[in-house]
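Practice record 12: protein with BV8.
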Amino acid sequence: MKTINPTDRILVLTGAGISAESGIRTFRASDGLWEEHRVEDVASPQGFARDPHLVWRFYKKRYKQAMSVEPNPAHYALKKLEDALGDRFWLITQNVDGLHSRAGNKNVIEMHGSLNTAWCTHCGNRFPTEEIDLEAELPPCPSCNKMLRPDIVWFGEIPYQLDRIQSLLDRATLLIVIGTSGNVYPAAGFVMQARFLGARTLSVNLDAPENKGFFNEFYQGKAGEILPHLVDEWLK
Ligand code: BV8
Ligand code: ZN
C-alpha cells in the first residue's frame, strides 16, 4: 500500500487477536467459551445477576492475567504510528486488557470497558481495580460499601463512547482493523461505515474476518509479525 499521506486521518480498531501474542487467549480460540464458561453466563448482565460470585471469579482471573503479560510488537507498532501522526491517529479497542495504554498509546477508546476499572451502579462511582478489595468474594464499593461490578460492556449493553467513535469514523481517511473476527456488533460494522464514507480500509488478521469483503486490503498472518513492517513501510 502506498505510504500514508500527510493529510490521512487514521482510525484503528483492534480485537482480541492483537493480544494473542502477549499470551491472552482470544474469545474464538476457545470456541466462544471463556475459561470453560459460556459467554452468556459470564459476559452478560443477566449472568451477573444470576451468579455474581462466578462472574467476579472470571474477571478477577482475567485481570490478574492481564497484569502478568506484556504488550507485544503489534502494540508497540501502533504506539510508533501514534507518535508519528499525533491527533490524526485514534485507536478504538474491543479489548479490556489495557495493553494499548501500557504500550504508550494515548488516543485510546476502550469501547467495551476495561479490566482495570470497577463500577458501582449504586453510587455511580468508578475505581481503579488495583484500589478495590479483590480478596473479597464480591468486592465492595469504597464509597457506599455496596457490591461493585466489573466496568466491562457485556452482551446486550451499549458500548462506551459510540458518539465519539461515530465522529472519528466520519473523518477517518483510513480504517485499519487488527485481530478481530468481525462477529461482535456494533464494532464489526465500523468497516462498512468507513467504506461507505469513502475511507480506505485495511485488515491485519490471522484468518479471514467475517466482514472480509469490506476491506480494500487484507494482510493475513500474525499482527506481531506483520504490523511492525507495515508501519515502518508507511512511515518511510
Ligand atoms: C449492543 C467485553 C445494543 C466482555 C465484549 C445477532 C446479530 C448481530 C448482533 C447481535 C445479535 N444478537 C445480539 C447482538 C448484539 C451483540 C453481538 O454482536 N453479538 C454477537 C456475538 C452476535 N452485541 C452486543 O451485545 C453489544 N451491544 O449491541 O448493544 C446497542 C448497540 C448500539 C447502539 C444501541 C444499542 C455489546 C458487545 C460487547 C460485548 N462485550 N467484551 C469481555 O471481554 O469480558 S465482546 C468480546 O468478544 C470482546 O470484547 C470482543 O469484542 C469479542 C470477541 O471478538 P474479537 O475481539 O473479534 O475476538 P475473537 O476471538 O472473536 O477474534 C479474534 C480474531 O483475531 C480472530 O479473527 C483471529 O483470526 C485473530 N487472531 C488471532 N491471533 C491473531 C489474530 N490476528 C492477528 N494476529 C494474531 N496473532
Ligand atoms: Zn458505591
